[in-house]
Every structure is written in C-alpha cells, then in structure tokens.
Amino acid sequence: MKMQEILKMSLEELENKVQSLKKELFYLRFELALGKLTNTAQLRKLKKSIAHIKTVLTQKNTNLKSTSIPKENDSSSNTPEETTEELKKKLKNQNQ
Predict the structure, then answer these.
(1) What is the distance between the alpha carbons of residues 61 and 65, in angstroms, rounded to a whole number?
(2) Is 96 helix (H, G, I), strand (E, B) or coil?
(3) What is the mean pLDDT of residues 5-22?
(4) Rounded-to-integer distance, Cα 77 and Cα 73, Å
(5) How confident is the model at residue 25 (pLDDT cuts 50, 70, 90)?
(6) Residue 51: which pLDDT band, with cuts at 50, 70 and 90?
(7) Which GO terms describe its biological process (predicted)?
(8) Mind giving me the DSSP string for 16-62?
(9) How far is residue 18's CA from residue 8's CA, in Å, rounded to a whole number?
(10) At a CB cut-off of 8 Å and minimum separation 6, what does 25 contact?
(11) Distance separating alpha carbons of residues 72 and 74, to the nearest angstrom
(12) Whole-angstrom Cα distance, residue 82 to residue 75?
C-alpha cells in the first residue's frame, strides 16, 4: 500500500486493514512452513505495510489526544532540578 492511501483512511479503516493484513501474514507464514509459498517477498511487504499503518495510527491517535486534552499551566509544579535541590536540603538538615 502506498503511504498516500494510508494517510487518507479513517481510524476504523486503518484498524480493520491492520487486522486483515495480520490474517494474511498468518496464512502466508503457514504456506512458507509447508513449502507452498513461492514469493517470500510477500512476507516482507506485508510486514512493512502493517508497520506503516501502525505508524499512521499512532500519529493520528497522538494528534487526537494532544488536541483534545488541554495542557495544564500549573506554576506550582516542580521541575526535576528543583526537586533534587529540595531533597539535598532535606538531607543536609537531617545530617546536622
């Protein structure tokens, strides 16, 4: 499948396509094990297609999540450096 075709598909279509490609890959693996598969390049193409579709699914899902969940502007949250400094101060006070 071409990437342009994949990008045009909806989330449901992409999920259905992944499932159908996985089934096809399953059957091709059986044919390979039985020695009936003549074109082994099909396995590689299917795996790549599944990876492309999963990548697009992940991108679309993260875009949906980032647009639907607003970021919190909490000024009281500590950065890791501040937390480390606070811990050092506490340890110093305990040792004295």
Answers:
(1) 6
(2) coil
(3) 93
(4) 9
(5) very high
(6) very high
(7) translation
(8) HHHHHHHHHHHHHHHHHHHT----THHHHHHHHHHHHHHHHHHHHHH
(9) 15
(10) 43, 46, 47, 50
(11) 6
(12) 13
81: left (phi over 0), alpha (psi -120 to 50) or beta: alpha
Name 42's Cβ contacts closer than 8 Å, sequence gap at least 6: 28
Per-residue pLDDT averaged across 56-80, rounded? Answer: 70
How many CA atoms does the CB half-sphere of 41 hold within 13 Å? Answer: 1
Asked whether 63 and 13 are in contact (CB, 8 A), the reply is no
